[in-house]
Design brief:
The chain has 386 residues and is an alpha+beta fold. The protein has 2 domains: 262 residues, Alpha-Beta Barrel (TIM Barrel), CATH 3.20.20; 92 residues, Immunoglobulin-like, CATH 2.60.40. The chain is 23% helix and 31% strand. It has a 15-stranded mixed β-sheet that branches. Helix 2 packs across helix 3. The radius of gyration is 23 Å and the shape is elongated. It starts with a helix and ends with a strand. Bound molecules: zinc ion (2 copies).
């Protein structure tokens, strides 16, 4: 690791520790649309009592509406049942029940399942499935109350549910890489089987956030050019788990607010992830979201004979952007040009000593908590035409 990278990491850590921690969960999350696309808040990884979750499917809808989400995917494990004596095995039911509960509401519910062997390729979600029950789970010995795989598993048996998902034109993504180091002989995390499924065009995305940020997953996402996803993987009440902050979400930048629109955005990798006070995204989405969040106005004045520019920025998103700004002129009052653009609060600063009366000012902005790669935060420019 180079010295620059180390310093950036250090800065990110310092910034994270300086940020405000809410004492209660912020349930509603506001994000602006970006040019050409609508911004949808999504959670593509949720469990219910149909596998190892603790809630009935309609509860996921109530939570999502409370949190202002636009999209949820029902993704119970297709190879485990907690309550076989009470609940008849049917992995389309969570979607059907939740779908009914969401009728007439502004929430898109997507059918899906989590393929969960404890050997490579480990856990993966298949979403936009038409019939979850068709995914074969021949690698399992017992699924009722106990999760027991066969002693000798054929590679074919492991790949079979993925091929069926592909047949149903599902979108498949790798969940929580490195969640458990089940196979210590194969610590590659993105194993030969993942590479094969990726080459077949089956695995297209990865959870860089599963409750928390995962740098290994982020590096894999870069290397294999996978869609970035961030989900809660909630098994119980989302509110309690994320009570000190907010649930993690994937932001999908869609052309239309429909299931097809969401699928198109995921396939084209137009996503960002919001976790704690961080945005994780590729540069184009990160830059567009940051810029769309800001409403900038300015006033040119002469103050005691000194030409100055008074600039006001209002952050219209719920992300407290922590920035450092440099300009070809001095910025008054903010050491190193650092400031936090708190959500929905105007922040005013003065650009000083503009003796040559410029017609354009370019502010170089570094946004500490917007992460565009595992080693780099967002650097961008704000242009002010005077
Ligand atoms: Zn589970
Ligand atoms: Zn899992």
């Amino acid at each position: 690791m180079t010295l620059i990278m180390k310093n950036i990491n250090k800065l990110l850590l310092i910034t994270a520790s300086l940020m405000v921690v809410n004492s209660y969960a912020q349930t509603k999350m506001n994000f602006p649309d970006i040019p050409g696309y609508q911004t949808l808040k999504c959670d593509f990884h949720l469990h219910t009592v149909y596998s190892d979750g603790s809630v009935w499917p309609n509860f996921r809808v109530m939570e999502a509406l409370r949190d202002g989400l636009d999209v949820i995917a029902m993704t119970d494990h297709i190879d485990f049942e907690s309550y076989p004596e009470f609940i008849e095995k049917d992995y389309n039911k969570p979607y059907e029940i939740a779908g009914k509960a969401a009728e007439g509401k502004k929430l898109i519910v997507i059918n899906g399942g989590e393929i969960s062997p404890r050997v490579s390729p480990y856990h993966n979600n298949a979403i936009f499935l038409k019939d979850v029950n068709k995914l074969p789970i021949d690698y399992m010995q017992t699924t009722e109350k106990k999760f027991v795989m066969k002693d000798h598993i054929d590679k074919k048996e492991l790949i079979a549910p993925f091929l069926e998902a592909q047949k149903q034109d599902a979108f498949v993504f790798y969940n929580h890489p490195g969640y458990a180091w089940w196979d210590k002989k194969d610590t590659a995390i993105f194993t030969g089987l993942h590479k094969e499924l990726h080459e077949k065009g089956i695995i297209k995305g990865i959870e860089v956030v599963n409750g928390r940020y995962n740098i290994i997953a982020h590096r894999i996402a870069e290397k294999y050019n996978l869609t970035l996803l961030g989900n809660s993987d909630a098994h119980a009440d989302v509110f309690y788990t994320y009570r000190t902050s907010h649930r993690p979400v994937t932001l999908a930048f869609v052309k239309d607010k429909t299931e097809e629109g969401v699928k198109e955005a995921l396939k084209k990798k137009r996503t960002a992830v919001y976790v704690d006070d961080f945005i994780i995204a590729r540069y184009p989405e990160a830059d567009a979201l940051f810029k769309a969040s800001l409403e900038t106005s300015f006033e040119k004045r002469v103050r005691n004979g000194e030409p100055i520019l008074s600039v006001t920025i209002i952050n219209k998103s719920d992300v407290p952007y922590s920035i450092r700004m440099t300009a070809p002129y001095n910025i008054e009052n903010y050491p190193l040009g650092q400031m936090i653009l708190k959500p929905h609060e105007p922040r005013t600063f003065v650009v000083k000593e503009m003796w040559d009366n410029p017609s354009l000012i370019e502010l170089d902005v570094e946004v500490y908590n917007v992460v565009v790669s595992p080693e780099q935060n967002l650097r961008t420019k704000i242009q002010l035409q005077l």
